[in-house]
UniProtKB/TrEMBL annotation:
Protein name: Uncharacterized protein
Annotated organism of origin: Klebsiella oxytoca
């Protein structure tokens, strides 16, 4: 993320900020109180230093409510959604559309994925092998777009 300097100078109570944990997860939070040198965030016991926007113990970092932070937050949400999918419960059509999304990302942007060389595994296995932290944001978008398209296709087929 971009180094945001002095963004805490005009921080107000009730403002929205984003807090990053050591493992890179981003949470949308609300500022609870603001004092001269520190501010506190709702739901987090540790105070944050206004000079460096870090928790006093240095484990958590906070970021302003700006475009870049919102973009990163959205990406974290998409990754979490993708990782939480129960692949075994997906239909074959959903899996095929998601793999097609991965293949489109590979053809268009050159991004490889783990399951792409696994010709001897089943499609659900290929998809499961492909979903990991190394996925590029574009790949995540294409996979989720494939899932959405398969759901829309299912709705259209039911309406006919």
């Amino acid at each position: 993320m971009t180094n945001h300097t002095n963004w805490t100078g005009d921080l107000t109570e009730g403002a929205t900020i984003f807090v990053a944990t050591p493992d890179g997860q981003l949470s949308k939070c609300r500022v609870e109180s603001v004092r001269d040198r520190h501010f506190s965030v709702e739901g987090i016991e540790r105070e944050f230093d206004k000079l460096n926007a870090c928790s006093v113990d240095g484990l958590l970092h906070s970021y302003p409510d700006d475009f870049e932070s919102r973009e990163l937050f959205g990406l974290c949400q998409q990754k979490n959604r993708l990782k939480s999918l129960q692949i075994d419960s997906l239909s074959l059509q959903q899996v095929q559309y998601m793999l097609a999304g991965l293949e489109l990302a590979r053809k268009r942007y050159g991004y490889q994925y783990r399951g792409s060389k696994a010709v001897d595994t089943n499609q659900k296995g290929r998809l499961a092998m492909s979903i990991d932290d190394s996925l590029h944001p574009i790949q995540i978008d294409y996979i989720l777009a494939g899932l959405k398209l398969s759901l829309l296709q299912t709705e259209v087929n039911h309406d006919c």
